[in-house]
């Protein structure tokens, strides 16, 4: 197992399973690795875009791995899916049209579907294999596809947005890390395309990497997109099986102010949730001083 | 390396280093493991109480391991030390006498020393070797011992408290996990001893394990001690090198109400901190729904 190089074309997820444990090592988190105990490999293959591995773990349920990086474990996925979906949706007073870019496992759709006021959900996932194998092995997430309001487009999100301007109240980008197919999703031109596809008052929420690992990536991106979004803020959620145990979200608005307080509180909906609640919405934006300074204050 | 048994008398930290990586596997976090890349082992030996390992890592600075469990890495220790110290100290309007149980590395003392109003800090650490090797290899933490207000007692905390009733404004218990020498620190009798050693209006803050792993341990302990403390609350901090990336704190008060809001805000002191700030004080008590329900609501 190599541990200090870029995942190459030839990365093989099976090589990361040694002595019955899957070891997640990557250039984005040098010198540290999360390991999960493997009970059984359920699927391994190469899609048009990436290495796809699905295994059943001893204690974390079924696990989806793309290019050697853990995307989902059944045990803790709810913290990510709930927060990336409900933070922007609850910050919007009346979201009707929602676009999901990436998110092929269906978990984000599952959460958006809990909002009765939403009329249309379109998902734009570039890798059809992620959808296919999630439906086969992660039914608890792929249940999101069963909602009649969902339209699935297997295509590039940038291309889709070019053809759909001023269309969405909320855009959620649920991407993998900025190495490989998702690299372009961490650059300002992608945020410009999302801006153009938002309706007035719209909100984007994107996977924003980890404040403990990637401040050098987050800071310039936030600075750059603050030039055209009206507000840009950073929240985070805890999730044990992502590197360093947390992941952040960039929330940016088109002609709308801060999203730090929810625009709506729905205690009925919260009964169906395991992570998000209105108080946690506000708390998720309160950053440790080192992260707040690095992202928003230091020059 | 065994991965599903109790650390025994014979646990040898060196056995956990394989192919240049330290692997932290334990019965308290089955099926998952954090690994850190080792550059050089600085010390390994057995104290009267536990296996002590100190190594220099590739990306996380010097690392202290007790009985196979990571206690401190220089890279992220500040999030733990700051929160376990400043949450109770800032919740108290005028803390003068502070007791630390455990915390032999000195990091908690370092944080308490930042409070000018504190007149006495006593540390009661059972394992003198932890103090000795922290002074040798973790000077950035052991600097806490240099403050003239510090008194060091190498002895059992329970015994010390028996002889010091109604004495302290704040007691901080910075312990290892409830297997091995620290087991007794997670039981109600220990919390009763702390209660007796608090002055009126006093606050205890203890290492409270992880909401993602140990709700079955936290819930009954919180219920039990709520019978004699006036308020009992749970906060958490993010810390990448602890299991699942977070650790919690139990804060309990003797004849004082909620500690969720700081009693004091000190922006000058905050300039010296990298994690704690007054806004984060409040946010740290806002739990994800699954944890809030499990600890405080479900019967």
Automatic annotation (TrEMBL), chains A, B:
Pfam families documented for this protein: Spermine_synt_N, Spermine_synth
UniProt keyword annotations, A-Z: Polyamine biosynthesis, Transferase
CDD domains: AdoMet_MTases (cd02440)
Keyword Acyltransferase listed: no
Annotated ranges, domain PABS: 19-254
Residues at the catalytic site: 174 (proton acceptor)
Cross-referenced InterPro entries: PABS (IPR030374), PABS_CS (IPR030373), SAM-dependent_MTases_sf (IPR029063), Spermi_synthase (IPR001045), Spermidine_synt_N (IPR035246), Spermidine_synt_N_sf (IPR037163)
UniProt cross-references to NCBIfam families, sorted A to Z: MFS_SpdSyn, PRK00811.1, speE
PANTHER family named in the record: SPERMIDINE SYNTHASE, SPERMIDINE/SPERMINE SYNTHASE
Family: Belongs to the spermidine/spermine synthase family.
Protein name: PABS domain-containing protein
Organism per entry: Tetraparma gracilis
